[in-house]
Each structure stands twice: as structure tokens, then as C-alpha cells.
């Protein structure tokens, strides 16, 4: 490390004598310091996970501090070198758009993106969100099986995101392949495994989880294997390119002037987060030293009541929501798309540690969501309301 600094000092004198700018000197010094720190940490013989964590801190914070300390000229900018990022994306469900929005955020920040997508490209590549991959500049897309190392993309990846697996059998091959060499391994888990608490329903990262859930086993494996992990626990996402209905369930009924059966008194609160805001949280953790060995709720700060969801959709449609509240203990859940009780989580930790801010609100997004619903021709499609009718007939005269 000392040799690297001496070399840069000599080069600095040469550059100054030649009349070249100090900014180039500082950039080259940063590279030398970063390389030296990594070599020194690796030579200390620490466990692999600890070494990678210290590498991330040295490269991301130490180097930036040293460059900032050099006093760059007014108006100068610091360009952090691009990292190679692998995003392993699922082939369906509510989590699928996470991979797209994450890739967009990281690409805009200058990272090199490779996407390993589960599934058959002949069946999926032309469908959203996967059909949007060509819009990501320079992204490389590989279709394969996330449980088969033979289909994994070759090369070194600094950061790996697993947005596919839901249990250890599906996640272990990826973890065992990449966690030994990457600086950070990110896993998209689920807030759904949090144990419900009727007295204090807000979910925090420290809320006890159900050890029988598959996501829990994956999280425990990451911790016991000393992986430089970052874990995200999403709730209910919504928005463009979704593959799972959320607001659409309410539109199916309100746009057809049908009653909306809502369990309980409808005042239960639910956390609904736009995919774009979720993508910002996911991307903000990349090579962030605070995110190493940390867990974050993948949610915005928007809370809406069950009745409020129906009212927000109706307002965007210029209609009145015909809400029918019912007792699910006697009439069952019906076709209701959410849990029966409160389901929301705190976003305080991600905002404080990752510096993210949210630009979406559920009510503010409903006009655009409604337009997409109509453009997709969903109002002309038949919907099975048989479960609704059973509940409504037992309540309304």
C-alpha cells in the first residue's frame, strides 16, 4: 500500500510539472489506494465474508473520502467506476418487475448489468416486464435455470441480487456459486413471514419471523455461511408491468358498477408500494457499507385502508365505490386479494441508512393505473364474481 502511494506521489509531481490538472492525479491516487487497501485486507487472512465487507467499506467510503480530501476544483464531479452486477429474476408473480426496475436504476448509475432470468424465453421474452429488457442500455440477458449452475453466466460479479428463489433448495446453488467471490449478495425475501401482532401491527426488520417459511431458511443460511448479505422484505407492490393483480381487483368491480366486498370494517391498513420506488431502495443498497449484513423492509411510506383503496380507485374512475363490509369469520375470505388484517411495515430504516425518498402515492398513481387497465382491454374480459355474489346476497336485501 505504501509503494502505491509513493508511486502516485511521484506521478503527481510529474503531472504538475507537465501542467496537467490535479483532478486526474486524484483519480489515479484513488485507484491506487483502493487497490492497496484490498490487497492489504486480503493479506490479513480474515474470513472471506469479513474481508469482502471490509473491501466494500474501503473502496466505497475510504477512497471517496481520500478523493474528497484532495479538494477537487469547484464544479468537478467524482465518477465512481462501474461495477458488474448480476440480477437473477423470477419468471412470474408480483416480484417479477423488481428485477426490471432495479436494472434500470443501476444502469442509470453506470453499472454493468447482467440479468439471469428464469424460464423459457420463447414464452416469456415478449411479455412484460421481460419485454422491457432491451430498454436497459448495455444490459446482457441470459435465460436459464437459477438452480442449475451450468446455466449461470460466466465472469465475475461484484454484486448479486437474487429476486427468484423462495426456499433454500432454489437459492442454495446461486449462493454457493457467487457468494465466495462477490462483494455483496442481495436476497429478495418476504415480509409475509413476519409473525402477526394485533397489538402492534407495524412490521419492523426486527419483528420475529415464522421459522417454517422458506424465505426464513434462506436468510438463516446467508447468515450462517458468513455471506456479505443484504436482505429485502417486500410487501404488496403495484404499478406498471405487474404480473399479479392488486388495484386491478378493485377496478374489476368498480368499473362494472358492482359492489366491492371488503372484510371487516375496512379500516385495516395495508402498505402498497410502487415498483419504481422499490427499485430505488434495491439499487441504493448496492455497495453501500451500511447495507452489508443488514435487512430492509422493501416498502414505501404509503399506508392505505382497505376501504381507502376502493375509494382511491373510484375517485380516479369518476365513480362512487359501493363498499359492502362483511364478517370474514362467518362468510369466509371470498375473493379478497389481501390478508384479512393489517399488513404494513416501516420504511424508516431504508430511508435513514440508504438515503432513499419516495415519489409515489397510491392515490396519486391510480389515474395512470386505470388508463393501463383500460388499454389492456380488461374491461371487456369476463370476471368470475361468484364468490362476491355469495357474500353480497347474505348481506344486501
User: What structural category do the secondary elements indicate?
Assistant: alpha/beta
Report the portion of residues in β strands. Answer: 5-15%
Question: Which sheet architecture does the biggest sheet show?
Answer: 7 strands, parallel
Quote the distance from N terminus to C terminus: 82 Å
Task: Describe this structure as you would to a colleague.
By secondary structure, the chain is an alpha/beta fold. Helices cover 41% and strands 15% of the residues. It is built from 14 helices and twelve strands. The strands form three sheets. The protein has a seven-stranded parallel beta sheet with strand order 3-2-1-4-5-6-10, sandwiched between helices. α6 (168-178) packs parallel to α7. The N and C termini lie far apart (82 Å).
Short description:
The chain is of the alpha/beta class and 397 residues long.
Topology, pairings included?
Layout: H1 2-18, H2 22-42, H3 48-69, E1 84-89, H4 96-108, E2 112-118, H5 121-124, E3 140-144, E4 159-163, H6 168-178, E5 184-188, H7 214-224, E6 229-234, E7 236-238, H8 247-254, E8 260-263, E9 269-274, H9 275-284, E10 294-298, E11 303-305, H10 306-317, E12 323-326, H11 328-331, H12 348-354, H13 362-375, H14 386-393
Parallel strand pairs: 1-2, 1-4, 2-3, 4-5, 5-6, 6-10, 7-9, 8-12
Antiparallel strand pairs: 9-11
Helix pairs in contact: 1-2, 2-3, 4-9, 6-7, 8-10, 10-13
